[in-house]
Design goal:
It is built from 9 helices and 7 strands, in the order E-E-E-H-E-H-E-H-H-H-H-H-E-H-E-H. The protein is of the alpha/beta class and 229 residues long. Helix 1 packs across helix 2 and helix 3 packs across helix 4. The radius of gyration is 16 Å and the shape is globular.
Length: 229
């Protein structure tokens, strides 16, 4: 049975869209906004994503939404808001970069080809280390096994191909209000890059979360940043 790409969690009309990072899906956001109606996704497939999300929101959302995008999902959140500005009230970008160096992406592709399980396990650890160890233990004890079992290598390669070309800067940020949130201990995406993008964007604010790693949306203080909008 094919799993639907999008789903609504919570009761009521969704006002938030949650876009996960590479090699994860909407389940990674569980508990971040308890009880709040939101749109979540399966593993991200970038080609044609904005069009498919817009069609889903036509059926499920009554008005503009806040789009929260983490890492790969951040690039797609900004892209969606640029292409469908009337559907987006605000964008929250978490753990983003200006771009991923070609050599880094090629290295992940080689690792994925050689040993997918080891590649993914190492990546997941980087998302939480060095500072979010309790969150990592919870992830490893629950979701990681499902991800290692379920992740499709073709979808993972599609995500990496997109990341090899994706770019973010002040010029490519959408026109709506943008909050850029970053963990101070992020070892996947340098904090300085995200802060630089925020400085370039006249409608962007920057929020560094003390002690947070790449999975900064699970850190203390993240929910308050989103609520401030």
């Amino acid at each position: 049975m094919t799993r639907e790409e999008f789903a609504v969690i919570g009761e009521g009309d969704p006002s938030t869209v949650l876009l996960p990072g590479w090699a994860t899906d909407g389940r990674i956001f569980e508990g971040v906004f308890p009880g709040a109606p939101a749109v979540t996704t399966g593993p991200l497939r970038p080609e044609g994503f904005s069009r498919r999300l817009a069609a889903f929101l036509d059926r499920t959302a009554r008005g503009p939404v806040t789009v929260v995008g983490w890492s790969l999902g951040g690039f797609l959140a900004a892209e969606f808001a640029r292409e469908y500005p009337d559907r987006v009230r605000r964008v929250v970008l978490v753990g983003i970069r200006r771009k991923y160096p070609k050599g880094d992406v090629e290295g992940v592709l080689r690792s994925l080809s050689a040993d997918p399980g080891s590649c993914l396990s190492g990546f997941y650890a980087q998302c939480f280390h060095p500072s979010q160890i309790p969150a990592y233990r919870r992830f490893r004890g629950a979701l990681q096994a499902a991800y290692l079992r379920e992740m499709d290598v073709g979808t993972l390669r599609e995500g990496l191909s997109y990341l090899a070309e994706a770019r973010l800067s002040g010029e490519t940020l959408p026109a709506c209000p943008v909050a850029i949130v970053h963990g101070e201990k992020d070892v996947v995406a340098p904090l300085a890059e995200a802060e630089g993008v925020a400085r370039e964007g006249g409608n962007a604010t920057f929020h560094a979360l003390q002690g947070a790693a790449h999975a900064a949306f699970l850190a203390d203080g993240f929910r308050a940043v989103v609520a401030d909008g």
